Amino acid sequence: MADSLTLDEQLCFPLYAASRAMTAAYRPKLERLGLTYPQYLVMLALWERDGRSVGDICHALALDSGTLSPLLKRLEAAGLIERRRSVADERRVEIQLTERGRALRAGACGIPAEMAESCGLSAAEVLALRETLRRLTNSLMSH
After folding, report:
1. How many C-beta atoms surround the C-beta of residue 37 within 10 A?
2. Which residues, in sequence order, are bridge partners of residue 96?
3. Residues 6 or more apart in contact with residue 98 via CB below 8 angstroms
4. CA-wise closest residue to 105 among 58, 35, 55, 54
């Protein structure tokens, strides 16, 4: 019987190592845009749908507001976003891309293809892995 307390027997370790490797592979691509990986994720959420609430971005990125707030402050200081109180509900803060934030999208368009090439996986393998990871995440978050 295999020892269950070895790195080779863990699911968490290859996920951790892959996450670190993925983030490292993104770093030089994102440096060209002046973004960190977490900031890039926020920008992806806003490029997908501008004018999202802070809560909506938290939900989309599986982050708490304490983690998201410093990211938003840095993006605002960089002139990429603006935070505004909702007219309908003053308690709600909406995040809007600035013109500069919208323009940055053009510089990011090639990143997904560059990363796909770096992964060394077929398109079918990427799709299957992404779906497996979504199921894993949903299962772990529901417990």
Report:
1. 14
2. 82
3. 79, 80, 81, 82
4. 35
Residues 75-116: tens digit of each pLDDT: 999 999 999 988 888 888 999 999 999 999 999 999 999 999
The two most distant CA atoms of the chain are separated, in Å, by: 63
CA distance 140 to 143: 6
Quote the strand ranges of 1-143, DSSP E: 52-53, 81-85, 93-97
**Other CB atoms closer than 10 Å to residue 75's CB: what's the count?**
24
Quick one: average pLDDT of 10-26? Answer: 97
The CATH T-level fold of domain 35-101 is Arc Repressor Mutant, subunit A (1.10.10)
Q: Using one digit for the tens of pLDDT, what is the confidence trace for 25-68?
A: 999 999 999 999 999 999 999 999 999 999 999 999 999 999 99
Is 42:28 a contact under the CB 8 Å cutoff? no
What residues does each domain of the chain span? 1-32, 35-101
- CA 35 vs. chain centroid, Å, equals 12
Q: What is the DSSP letter of 9?
A: G
